[in-house]
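Work package 3, deliverable 3.1, input record:
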Amino acid sequence: MQKTLIHLIAAARPNFMKIAPLYHAFKCLDFLEVEIVHTGQHYDYNMSDSFFEDLKLPQPDHNLGVGSGTHAQQTAAVMIAYEALCQQRPPNLVIVVGDVNSTLACSLVAAKMQLPLAHLEAGLRSGDRSMPEEINRIVTDSLCDLLWTPSPDADQHLLSAGISANKIVRVGNIMIDSLEMLREVIENQKITEELELVKNSYALVTLHRPSNVDSKPALTDLCQGLFQIAKRSKLVFPIHPRTKSRLEEFGLLKELEQSNSILLLEPQPYKQFMKLVFDCRLVITDSGGVQEETTYLGIPCITLRANTERPITISQGTNRLSDPARLCADVEQVLSCRLATTIPDLWDGKTAGRVVESTLKFLQIHS
Ligand code: UD1
């Protein structure tokens, strides 16, 4: 008899730490067959393979190899390739995570082929439709049969969109499972020493949002803000490929490279990056996941965005929104006070177990 087949869809760097705990939890159940489908949206070693190695994931069962492109090209390429895969052997459940273009693309394919579809990290909303990820979240959630949420605000967004309460299950934050799974290994990384960084004395910077890096004025302002901060604190800046190519294009890379207090790095593998987070004094970012990891670790985070789909990191955590004009003042303020924060409910490293429980219930009802 054929086993029940689950597809775990992974595409881009922030997806890998979300599928890893699920993969390991589902793998323990004999009657399930779990396949990892990598769409190939991210393909550099540092953006993809290194994460598979760190998170103890096997090679993907399927690699759709779509690569980069415009939004339409990328989304369409994933849809065509994923539909063909599902036609060969339709899965009994498709699990998508996060909010990247491949999340949307595979959700559309699953919904049109009437394959059961679940979304992990459902219900997050920034309210900003100029963000491609917001469109991906809205459409994905509207198509799902099962929506796993990380926080009460997410439940509320789904209910307000008319999604039935019995499809929504609050499971917590899956990224904390990966972090806890590898905590000891992360703590033992030597990257801080190798880079001759002093613990708690540097700010870690990550930037890649199109709204920050794709326009020359916006990126120039941000670099000016970073130069200001660099006068008082060392900055460590692993550069995303998108950001690196824009810095080169806009003639901004040289000045950054020449600064004595800004250390530019290649994108870092998961364990090394998390060690840099563990040891820093402050994070300056526009990433989604980093806002959550810093809240969990109690590390101050300044998010260079006008809004966030993760407001719980502000209301309960260590996060605050900023912009290039306020950046310096915000850094000063954050460094001069002690943040009173709490860890949100169910961000406890046990989210994968709750997802498995919910999946088994779902499969039983729908078999
Ligand atoms: C994507 C996601 C974003 C997520 C981010 C994490 C969408 C719409 N965006 O943005 O939500 O926060 O991943 O990194 O899905 N490139 C490489 N090597 C790679 C991957 C990309 O060089 O392995 C370069 C290519 O030039 C590419 C550019 O980076 O054109 C952008 O990649 P893309 O996947 O389109 O978007 P991200 O900015 O990475």
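The pocket of uridine-diphosphate-N-acetylglucosamine is lined by residues 12-14, 41-44, 47, 68, 99-101, 132-133, 208, 240-242, 245 (CB under 6 Å).
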